Amino acid sequence: MFAPGLPPTNFLPPARDENPLASLAANLNLNKRSLSPPDANSPEAKKQRLHHSMRMLKDEPVPEGYVRFRFNEDCRYPHCGYREHQTHFHCMRQDCGYSFCDKTRFVQHTARHERLDTLMGGDFQQYRANVPCGRAQCAYTSSLGSMQNKASHFHCLKCDFVCTDTNKVVAHRRQHAKLDSIAAAGFQKFTPSQPCGGVQCQHSGKQTHYHCLQCQYAVLGLAQMSAHKYRHMDT
Q1: Do 211 and 217 touch, CB atoms closer than 8 A?
Q2: Is this entry keyworded Mitochondrion (predicted)?
Q3: For residue 229, which of 77, 86, 96, 176 sits 20 to 30 Å off, Cα-Cα?
């Protein structure tokens, strides 16, 4: 028998490594370390990301309409900033040649061409800042490849109009559509700066007007065109 509150004389405390609470705490710390996410900025993580990116560049197929050039290959684009020192891609369209090294640009750039093709409607030709348009008189030819000229420009295929604003492309196409309608009605448009050549035309050099291609009768608007057409239908 022993007195209450006092340990027996033969009592030995458990060894430190046999303490169940200490073992539990050690196990919890071990599990915490094993479950914690790896450091994204560690050298090993960076090495794995680089290896993965290089493998993706090497193995993934290039979408149609694009071509890949490796860091030691000459892409032969004279104004390309990645030429012969970085693996990159080029758009193969003759009026483009856009270069990039980020694979996410494939979808973005393809969507850009689809949008511009819709805006141009086959009436314009687009040329990027580093692509020659082949027109010696073009104001943008002299600044080809310069740092000041970073915008694409657009040439109208029906006249000499050129611009860099897609809004002007749409507006100019509307003008041609109107002229096509006027020509289909049998008339020709003349602006104040375009002498019509009519000897007795009171509108020549003064205001926009339209001449009938059959009798040279002059009108000022579409309503008069419609009324004049019936004269020729009756004859």
Answers
A1: yes
A2: no
A3: 176
